[in-house]
Each structure stands twice: as C-alpha cells, then as structure tokens.
Write a structure and sequence with these properties.
mainly alpha, globular, two-stranded antiparallel ribbon, Glycosyltransferase, single chain, 13 helices, 9 strands
C-alpha cells in the first residue's frame, strides 16, 4: 500500500476507533432499557429520552457492523445486543409493522408511519444476526422485509415520515432504501428471492428515476412514474443520489453485474460535479436540474451525511474504476469536511451547517444526533 493510502487508512481508523465509537458508548447507550438515547446536542448532552425506531435500527447496524468488520469489542457487542432486545420487545405493533417512536422504556408514542423505520430495523437486525447468531433477530428481519414489501406495493402508499409528501407521488428514497435493505438481508440469509427483490428495486431506480439524457437522478415522480411540473419535478438531491449509487454498486458486486457497477459509478460522477457548491464549498442538500431555485426550501443547508456518503462512494469508485476523478473528488470532499464538521475533542462530527459552513441548531429530519452515517462510512472505507 502506498504511503498516501496508508496515511488515509490510519486517519479514518483513528476517527472511528478513537473518536466516533467511544462517543456513542459514552453518550448514547441506554444501559437501563437498551438501545440508544440520541436526542442530544452535537456534543452529546441529552435533551430528551424519546426513542425513534429509525435511530435504534441505525445504531444497531453501527454497533454490529463495527463488531463484525472492525474490532471484536465486547462493549460494542453488548450495546448491539441491548438495542436488538429493545427492538424485539418494543419496536413492532400488533400487525408486525415497525413503529416510529417510543418512550425510553418502550411505550409506543407514534405508530407505524414510516417505511424507513422498518428498513433500518431490518438492516440492523440482519447485521446483528451475523454478529450474534440470534435466530429471533433474523426471523424478525425476514418477516419485517416481507411486511415492508407488501406495504410499499399498496395503492396510495404514503408512510414516509418524517417527510410529508403530497398524494400521488413516487419517491426515489423508497426503492433506494429497499435495494440496500434487501441486498444486505440476502447476503445474510442466502435467499435468492430476497436478492431478486433487490434487483427489482434497483431496476425501478434506473428505469424511472435516473435520466441519462439529463445526467440526473430525480427524487420525485408522479404516481405513474412521470415527471412532475415545477421545482418539485426538477429536484435533485446530490447526496442521496451518491448514496443510492453505492447501494447499486454493492448489489452489482453481489450479482456479478459489471454493467450495473459502471453505470452507478457514472451517476456518482454526475452528482458530485453538479452538487458541489462552487461558492462556499461542500455538497448542497438539493439542486434544481435546470438551475432554478431548488425545492425544498432547506436546500442550502449542508448536513454532514452527503459528505460521508461521498467519501465512501468515491473511494469505492476509485477502487473499481481506477479513474483519477474519484480520488480528486474524494480529497476535495474530505478536506472541506474535516475543516467544517470536526469538533475538536468530541470524537464525533458536527452534523448541521448552513450553506457557508457555519453551525446551526435546526432539526434535520429527526430531532436527534445520528449514530449512523459517519460510522457506517468509516466502517465501509476500512473494508476497502
């Protein structure tokens, strides 16, 4: 390995092992009821004790994947186990659907209103099964996936909290998350039918949402997969597109589909180039495909997650293609991110900035500090 790559690996490893994981073990683990308490400030000061199932599934994935792929740390496995047990005890309603929010001790406060909560619970339980071999976790993951598949196929499906959307919409986010959820679950189970489902969700993205003639992946279509009028129909979310495409690369690797991998790498390039803010640096949350005022109105915010997703996606594309643009862009994203998201002494990154790179306190999606995007990117990068 070259000295440059060795240095890069060492810096990412130190950020994960000496910073991010200790932050969450110190500030996030609920040692009384299990799970993560992440309604907190950027520095880890607890603000509330609500538990969003979305976050519980994400935290479970982080702890289990760290244990499986980086370091066999008993404290991390214990945190994963406590989270899995909390999810299995309190995370589902009578119909087997994953709920949205509970109290600290598991009393349901908001029911099954988000397919994303389902998918993150499945994602986390699948990874946890690889760590602990708990058959109850795998059974819940498989049953949850079948439930999720049926839900999204229902006419008028609209369970997409925390995002409110008008009726008669198709969201790229739904087949996007289901592609990765199904591919990972198929890797855990070896189930060919689940893998075929992943292929179907991937095909939906490339058939409808990716439009090569515009060199864009569009976030919203109408119920018949047709373009929407106005700014909504021109919305491109660069970070989401980049994240979605490394999901597609992972699926292409599972399937042995080199064409899918090449296509996904090309889409990553479109969106890192279009999404970069030439005025202030960093990746814009949303852009208008025609250069107009983007939709929604928080487009100018710069949350951390598009940058973490880009760091991994660009290194993955670099490994698979050998094309120089991948490393050039990775280094550019990394430099901007380290300057603006690093919190000296905290271990974790800051997660919310305005367009100029200044910290803000506005809620992004959920009123939480997220235990997922940065550690997931670091875990996957080290796996390269």
């Amino acid at each position: 390995m070259s000295s440059v790559l060795e240095s890069l690996k060492r810096s990412y490893r130190e950020l994960l092992i000496d910073g991010v994981i200790p932050f969450w073990l110190r500030h996030g683990v609920d040692s009384t009821h299990g799970g993560v308490l992440n309604c907190m400030t950027e520095e880890g000061v607890r603000l509330a004790e609500d538990k969003y199932i979305w976050s519980q599934g994400r935290f479970l994935w982080t702890m289990a994947a760290y244990y499986n792929r980086v370091e066999r740390d008993k404290r991390v496995l214990d945190a994963a186990r406590g989270t899995a047990e909390f999810l299995l005890r309190h995370g589902r309603d009578e119909a087997g659907r994953w709920v949205y929010r509970t109290s600290r001790d598991g009393v349901v406060m908001e029911g099954s209103i988000s397919i994303y909560a389902d998918c993150f619970a499945i994602y986390g339980l699948s990874e946890y099964y690889r760590a602990a071999g708990d058959p109850a976790a795998l059974q819940a993951a498989v049953a949850g996936f079948e439930q999720a598949r049926r839900r999204v196929a229902q006419p008028g499906f609209n369970d997409t909290a925390p995002y409110r959307i008008p009726p008669n919409r198709r969201l790229h986010a739904v087949p996007m998350i289901l592609t990765e959820t199904a591919n990972e679950l198929a890797r855990t189970t070896g189930d060919a039918m689940i893998l075929e489902a992943a292929r179907g969700y991937s095909s939906e993205i490339f058939r409808f949402f990716v439009q090569p003639q515009r060199a864009c992946l569009f976030e919203y279509l109408d119920g018949d997969y047709q373009p929407l009028p106005g700014p909504e129909g021109r919305t491109v979310n660069p970070g989401h597109a980049i994240e979605s495409m490394w999901f597609q690369i992972h699926l292409g690797q599972t399937l042995g589909d080199a064409a899918l991998v090449r296509q996904a790498c090309q889409v990553i390039r479109w969106h890192i180039e279009k999404g970069w803010d030439e005025e202030h640096g960093g990746i814009l949350l949303a852009i208008d495909a025609d250069g107009g005022e983007p939709y929604p109105d928080n487009w100018h915010r710069k949350p951390w997650w598009p940058h973490t997703e880009a760091l991994y996606a660009l290194l993955l594309a670099a490994k698979l293609t050998g094309e120089p643009w991948c490393r050039v862009w990775h280094d550019r994203v990394r430099e901007w991110s380290l300057v603006h998201y690093t919190m000296t002494g905290a271990g974790e990154w800051r997660q919310r900035l305005d367009r100029t790179g200044m910290p803000i306190d506005e809620v992004v999606a959920l009123p939480v500090k997220d235990p997922f995007h940065l550690p997931r990117a670091l875990i996957l990068i080290l796996g390269l």
